[in-house]
């Protein structure tokens, strides 16, 4: 029989411990404490720490990615803005250029037309002058022939004929001047 | 011998010695019995379980690892960090872990058929645990504050008229330094012992009524004994878990009290 059982049967208090059981308990406790200290706790702590790191790392990474995306968007917006300004400037330049070209062409056309008009005037003037001269000759001859037929006297005498024609023409011009003034 | 096995003609209630079975073998005065076997078995079970579930150290835990983390996290966070405090709890985690799971598994042995012996119903086991706890919390207290200041902390509560210290110092010393470790040990021992006895009584009662008394009354009484036994059994499971928690919780509270600054 066990010493403990004997002791209990002898009326030993149940609070009286068995030394060997205490020793076994202490040894078992020490072994488990050693295993916990050496293996179990470090393993679980490592898992917890790694997990915390992974979560925090993930969060940090996400934050970095967000910041990067924001920077990219800002840059893009800036580029877009500058491109818009550039386009505006180019449009403005093109318009002013166009206006300048148009004005140039207008000026040149005006000059050309003025020149053409002037040339035309000059030609007309020259032709008119020529016409006046030839008319005067022709009218003179015709009038002289007619007058000699009527008068029956030769007006072939050039001096006389010229005087007559001149007087006639002077009269004609004077009359023309009157009607022009009246008009 | 056990009355549940050997039915007497007269009802004999099981007594304390029935909690002690004969040993498997003896070497001189050293007797290796069921109790010692269970102690060693608990060490193997706890170490094997926790080392197995955490073998992969996976960030995304498997079911087993999750269970292990829950158990470990309960001790580490609720008993360690929340009570001892963020600053100091880390060195105590292995000790808290060992206390809690060692006591838990050994208590639950009392509710597992065939094993059916809560090892803490033998007082020596409880004494060893309370002694280790006592040495540790007194040790860290003296190491932190020095012997004199630590003793002052333990025996001189603040905000008390000086005259009262004549009474208070002996009382506080008795309460904190002597009664505290004794109750720490007896609490877990007594609950385990009483639970074990209650189950034995219910079982003996049931067996006696069924086999010795017999008849309608005996069978009916036996069924009552069975119901009573089952009730006590589940109550015991609850108490076994609770006592493991309380022992470790109290240890954490003692450590916190020994470490805290101020008076």
UniProtKB/TrEMBL annotation, chain A:
InterPro entries: ATP_synth_B-like_membr_sf, ATP_synth_b/b'su_bac/chlpt, ATP_synth_F0_bsu_bac, ATP_synthase_B_chain. The chain crosses the membrane at residues 20-41. Its main location: membrane. It holds the Pfam family ATP-synt_B. NCBIfam families: ATP_synt_b, PRK05759.1-3. F(1)F(0) ATP synthase produces ATP from ADP in the presence of a proton or sodium gradient. F-type ATPases consist of two structural domains, F(1) containing the extramembraneous catalytic core and F(0) containing the membrane proton channel, linked together by a central stalk and a peripheral stalk. During catalysis, ATP synthesis in the catalytic domain of F(1) is coupled via a rotary mechanism of the central stalk subunits to proton translocation. Component of the F(0) channel, it forms part of the peripheral stalk, linking F(1) to F(0). This is ATP synthase subunit b. It comes from Kocuria marina.
TrEMBL record, chain B:
InterPro entries: ATP_synth_F0_asu, ATP_synth_F0_asu_bact/mt, F0_ATP_A_sf. Keywords: ATP synthesis, Cell membrane, CF(0), Hydrogen ion transport, Ion transport, Membrane, Transmembrane, Transmembrane helix, Transport. One of its GO terms (molecular function) is proton-transporting ATP synthase activity, rotational mechanism. Its main location: membrane. Pfam families: ATP-synt_A. The chain crosses the membrane at residues 35-54, 92-112, 124-142, 188-209, 216-235, 241-259. It is found in: Cell membrane; Membrane. It is a multi-pass membrane protein. GO terms for cellular component: plasma membrane; proton-transporting ATP synthase complex. Belongs to the ATPase A chain family. NCBIfam families: ATP_synt_6_or_A. Key component of the proton channel; it plays a direct role in the translocation of protons across the membrane. This is ATP synthase subunit a. It comes from Kocuria marina. The gene is atpB.
């Amino acid at each position: 029989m066990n010493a403990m059982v004997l002791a209990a049967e002898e009326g030993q208090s149940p609070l009286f411990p068995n030394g060997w059981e205490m020793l076994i308990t202490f040894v078992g406790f020490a072994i488990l404490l050693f295993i916990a200290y050496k293996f179990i706790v470090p393993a679980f702590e490592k898992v917890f720490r790694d997990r915390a790191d992974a979560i925090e790392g993930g969060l940090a990474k996400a934050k970095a990615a967000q910041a990067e995306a924001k920077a990219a968007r800002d840059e893009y917006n800036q580029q877009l803005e500058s491109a818009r300004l550039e386009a505006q400037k180019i449009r403005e330049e093109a318009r002013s250029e166009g206006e300048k070209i148009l004005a140039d062409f207008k000026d040149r056309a005006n000059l050309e037309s003025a020149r053409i008009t002037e040339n035309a005037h000059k030609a007309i003037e020259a032709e008119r002058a020529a016409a006046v001269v030839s008319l005067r000759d022709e009218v003179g001859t015709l009038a002289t022939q007619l007058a000699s037929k009527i008068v029956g006297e030769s007006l072939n005498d050039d001096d006389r004929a010229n005087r007559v024609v001149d007087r006639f023409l002077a009269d004609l011009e004077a009359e023309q001047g009157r009607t022009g003034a009246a008009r | 011998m056990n009355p549940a096995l050997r039915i007497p003609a007269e009802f004999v209630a099981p007594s304390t010695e029935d909690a002690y079975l004969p040993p498997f073998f003896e070497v001189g005065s050293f007797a290796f019995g069921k109790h010692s076997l269970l102690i060693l078995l608990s060490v193997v079970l706890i170490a094997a379980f926790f080392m197995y579930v955490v073998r992969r150290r996976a960030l995304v835990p498997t079911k087993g690892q999750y269970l292990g983390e829950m158990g470990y996290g309960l001790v580490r966070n609720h008993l360690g960090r929340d009570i001892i405090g963020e600053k100091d709890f880390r060195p105590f985690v292995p000790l808290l872990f060992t206390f809690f799971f060692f006591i838990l598994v050994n208590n639950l042995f009392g509710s597992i058929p065939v094993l059916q012996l809560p090892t803490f119903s033998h007082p020596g086991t409880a004494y060893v645990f309370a002694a280790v706890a006592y040495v540790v919390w007194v040790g860290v207290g003296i190491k932190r504050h020095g012997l004199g200041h630590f003793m002052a902390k333990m025996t001189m509560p603040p905000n008390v008229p000086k005259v009262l210290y004549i009474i208070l110092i002996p009382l506080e010393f008795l309460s904190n330094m002597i009664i505290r470790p004794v109750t720490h040990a007896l609490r877990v021992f007594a609950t385990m012992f009483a639970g074990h006895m209650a189950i034995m009584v219910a079982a003996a009662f049931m067996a006696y009524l069924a086999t010795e008394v017999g008849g309608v009354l005996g069978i009916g009484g036996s069924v009552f004994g069975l119901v009573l036994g089952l009730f006590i059994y589940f109550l015991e499971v609850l108490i076994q878990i609770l006592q493991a928690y309380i022992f470790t919780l109290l240890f954490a509270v003692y450590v916190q009290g020994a470490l805290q600054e101020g008076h």
